[in-house]
Design brief:
Elements (H helix, E strand, L loop, with lengths): L2 E5 L2 E4 L4 E8 L7 E7 L6 E6 L5 E3 L7 E5 L5 E6 L8 E8 L2 H6 L5 E2 L3 E6 L1
Parallel strand pairs: 2-11
Antiparallel strand pairs: 1-3, 3-8, 4-5, 4-9, 5-6, 7-8, 9-10, 9-11
Length: about 120
């Protein structure tokens, strides 16, 4: 059974930083892509960033420069460092994994998902 466990959410003031972490277990794939989506209040879920099995990263255009996604050496943990946070970044952040980067971005319904972690940014 695949399980994703997220941590690191919380409350922060605008301009601050947070780091989210997610560890996956139970995968049978040798290669896979992990990363983060978010759902802001009243909005649809959107992709934030991913890191593929070879360490290559991909970002939603609006996240580039402020967010940094990385995979730990054990390859089963992914982190999202979020800098210069703004109230508009307030959302539930979800960790997700897929067997390919393409599926992760374009067939998210097929991803495995974590439960989500709340990030609240106050002005």
């Amino acid at each position: 059974q695949v399980e994703l466990v997220e941590s690191g959410g919380g409350s922060v003031q605008a301009g601050g930083s947070l780091t989210l972490s997610c560890t996956v277990s139970g995968l049978t794939w040798t290669y896979f892509c992990m990363g983060w989506f978010r759902r802001r209040p009243g909005e649809r879920r959107e992709a934030v960033a991913s890191v593929d099995h070879d360490g290559s990263t991909k970002y939603a255009t609006s996240m580039k420069g402020r967010f940094a996604v990385a995979k730990d050496n054990d390859k089963y943990t992914v982190t999202l460092r979020m800098n210069r946070l703004q109230p508009d970044d307030t959302a539930v952040y979800y960790c997700a994994v897929a067997d390919t980067e393409q599926k992760w971005w374009y067939l998210p319904a097929d991803n495995y998902w974590g439960q989500g972690t709340q990030v609240a940014v106050s002005s």
